[in-house]
Amino acid sequence: MKSKKKKRQDDFQKVKLKVGKTKPKADNATITSFRTKGIHLSEQLKRDTSGPTTHRQLGINDLLSQLHHYNANVKHSALLGLRELLSLNPSLLDQHLSRLLSEVAAVFSDKDGNVRVAATRVLRFIAQSVPAERVSPFFPLLSAHLSCAMTHIEPGIQEDAMKVLDVLLEHYPALLAARSAVLLTNFLELISHKQSSSSAKKTQDAKGRTWALSVNPSRTVTSQQWRLSVLSRLGRFLQAVVEERPMEESDNFTQNEGVFGSSGEGTLTPLYLNWEELSYNKVGVRLYEHSGAKPTPRSTFKLRPEVEPAPTVGECLDSSDSVQSFASTLVPLLLEVWVEASTSDCPWNSSEGTHLLTPDAMSVMFQVLSILQLLRKLAPQQEHRDALDAWFYKEYLGEFKQHFMKNFPYGARDTPKHRKKVDLKRSKQTAAVPGLTVEPLALNITLCQVMVSLSQRQGVGRETDGDWLTPLRSFVRDTLSSGVKLSYKQLHMLLGTVWKMVLTQRSKTVTEELLAAVYVYYKQRNLTLQPRSLLLSFYSKLYLQEQGHTHIARSKVLCCWLASLPVQLSQLGHRNPALSARLILSIQAAASRGNKDLLNSLHTHACKLYDPQEGVVVLLPAESQQQMVQLLYFLPKMSQSLLANLSCCCTAGRISASLAASLIRIIHFRSSLSGWSIGCQEAALQDVDYISFLFSTLTGFSSDRLASLQEDEDDYLPPTPLSPLSLYPTPLEQFTHHWDVVEEVCHSLETLGSKSQCFDILQNGICKYLTKLGVVPDSMAAGLLRAVSRLMDLSVLPIEPVLRFLSQCCLSLLVLLITLQQELPAETNHKREAIWGACVSALSTVPRLLRMVLQLLRVGDLSEDELPQLGQILSMLLQHTPIQNQLLANAALLQEIIQQLTRYSRGATREQWLTDLLYCYSVTVTHGSSARRGNLGLRDMY
Length: 942
Hints:
Strand content: under 5%
Strand order of the largest sheet: 1-2
Shape: flat
Structural class: mainly alpha
Number of strands: 6
Distance between the termini: 180 Å
Largest sheet: 2 strands, antiparallel
Helix content: 55-70%
């Protein structure tokens, strides 16, 4: 016992502390003598600095990853951050376009409405910045997500899908049109449902309709408003499909018409070829049938294999059968939508006021009619459209007349506006439906076009169309005749309706009635360019149809319109060149067909149209000027006043030299002296008038202008003993223009037949009108010398007055040539070459002209400054080989002039010009001494 107690005490013995000794540390004491070092993980907390960030320091990778978050607020803030980041850094769109589109499209079907709205806004921002060709590779994914949203079970997601569709229709209509197969089915499922087999047998009618309208009470808008919203998007989608489909040229007055179209689409740009480049294989030319246009189905000959075009529309609408199948499903639904809207719009049984519609009912009817109109345009070719019209006529004409024509025309109902408290919930519901305000006029015009398109060509069994076409015709006539202001689209639709009525009714009375109404609208003065051009296109294309339609031929309205075109062109002038070009095209089409009313009116106003100062031929652009010149070929008669205006047009420089040459050739062909066989067309001008026109054009100046030059002493160079005539210096541009005209005039004179007679007429004109002139323009003098040398015939020698005048012109031009060579050697190169060529050709061809020029050189009367000029002139003549024989024939006279120059040269030493002259003279005399004996006969002639 004693030992056990002692053990227990050993376990709990008290430590005895001694004074002066260190107290031992406890077993559980904390050791504080160690040191620590921090570990920094630099990449763990580092923010994304690889690219731009938002104000929350989030990059595009962070924002795109947050779109997968389960919290709707996180996704919404991520979409807001994406919009902020992309607006500040547009370059991110190109770098991350694929991820952006895929991630944003994935939240189209999100269960939170705010997220869907934010996603739509981001998509709109992307669509405004990225073109369609960049989005095209990723558009199938966008379309798939859109289809999921449109067919979602939640009504809110379907409504927001319509907003996404609005963005894509606005920015990428072509891409949507290429995927029409799936989207059209989605549109049907939005407003209807396909009945099951059991219920379909009970409700199926005689036409096999298996789709019925659906009603969803959980929507935020009414069923009628929802259907109106869907139909408006369906109309825009079908419009995109129609616009992307290549339209074939037909006899219908469509908006994409070719030659006389108002939109300018479908026209072919001519190719101008340079045959020199072609011959050296610098330019390659590929040949296509119909200038590269789409060949017609009746064509059998092809220059190259036809390449299949890229698919522009979906598989659902690639044939007339598929369009007809889709229409057989959609049209009954459209009729049900309109019946529902009309019954809810007019609950009472009274027959009064049934033609008055509320704005909602009017919008529904307008959308239904617009879709019916687009369904017809979905047919790929014209014969398919005709077949589709016949099918509509057979299947739905009775229902259309019952539902649409019973209360035609429609008007707007006046609904009283009561003051009441604004319901915010109701206003939000109304705002959810796109604002479609339809005017009664637009509704009635659309109804006219839809119904008239169903009308078939009159024949056996077709006389029953008159009962429902009569109110339509009356409405079209009254609308066009009332002076109401129509938009461009409304006018286009009305003209298309008139076109269809005229070609299908085949009635002279109906045609005159409708064309008279169109002409009343045409005569309005405040029409802008587009409506005026559209009316011109309508009349022009209708006039081209007269050969195949007897009821259009000899129409009084068309004749009146054609007769007014030259008057309108002269009054319009250059104030609107585009409209003037339209008028000229219409005039050209009728003139080429020989319309007497137009040709008589054109002949009456020709002097005003071809006035050299204020006429459209000099005021319009070059292309229109060429067309105006081409019209001269169709003129029945050309008066003397018109020929005077045309001569001034050629010489005044208001039209180009090439166009002036074309004008001269056309007048040459219309004369009896040309020798061309023009068929039944008589000569438009007399021979005397034609010769007068050529002579006036050759001179280049009118008689009044020449008379004014004789009185004005400040504009011309005074005569000198060396230069017997006072030359009026024409500007270089005018001289070049006149020289080109002179070449064409000479060519026309040479082709008249007898050169001797032409020369005789020319010298008589010079003797009568020009020999008495003291001031002569240098261009006219050079032109006369050129014409005389080209028309010279040795059987007719020039008379003395003409020879004297030509010698004076030649000597004065040679002096001018020396002056130009000294003063402006570079700028007047072309002018100097032309003057020298004219003088040399005249001196070498005209008998006794060189002798008379040498006789005019009186050395004793010359001043000291004129002697070097004379020496240079003689040196130039001596150096020119073609006239050396003529100089040798006048060697005695030439020797006398050189001796006088040597005698009157007052320099102490012989000057350089005199040395050069004596050298040239010695060389010429030595060279020609051996040939002088064989050419003694030249002395008498030259």
